[in-house]
Description:
By secondary structure, this protein is α/β, with parallel strands linked by helices. About 40% of the residues lie in helices and about 20% in strands. A seven-stranded mixed sheet has the order 1-2-7-6-3-5-4, sandwiched between helices. Strand 1 and strand 2 (about 10-15) form a beta hairpin. The protein is globular, with a radius of gyration of 15 Å.
Amino acid sequence: MEVxxxxxTLTLVEGDITNEETDAIVNAANTRLxxxxxxxxxxxxxxxxxxxxxxxxxxxCPTGQAVITTGGNLKAKYVIHTVGPxxxxxxxxxxxxxxxxxxxxxxxASARNLKSIAFPAISTGVYGYPVNEAAQIxxxxxxxxxxxxxxxxxxxFVLFGRKTYDIFADELKKLMP
Length: 177
């Protein structure tokens, strides 16, 4: 699914983010930048040990923030590591932290003059964020950013599994009828 947002394009695809050829892919990292399960583990496995070496030098990343490393062996030149919130019922600032994780990733891409970025469904795996709520926050944040910043030409959400893709597609239709 693809929509135009001002001069930019926002797309949804079902697939494996480690195969993306965008300038940067976003990693759903943990605060220690220590590698882990899900997307984080897949990116570190595919990207090789140089990404972990850079993460160790950075040291960590607070929830809602983002840091950048090179892409190692990935097709993407960079990996933007962001930390989404662990879902605790929705009343502990999770929505603001999830929005911030997306926004800080986009700001970092702009600061590096990157033209394309690919996101996974941040916080929806082991962190337990309801996919429909996460999709609405992620997509609205990206759309709002693209309306103000035409430097990023492509934002792609690479979604693992048909169910997650369908939920994101439904949310995108609500935001961009």
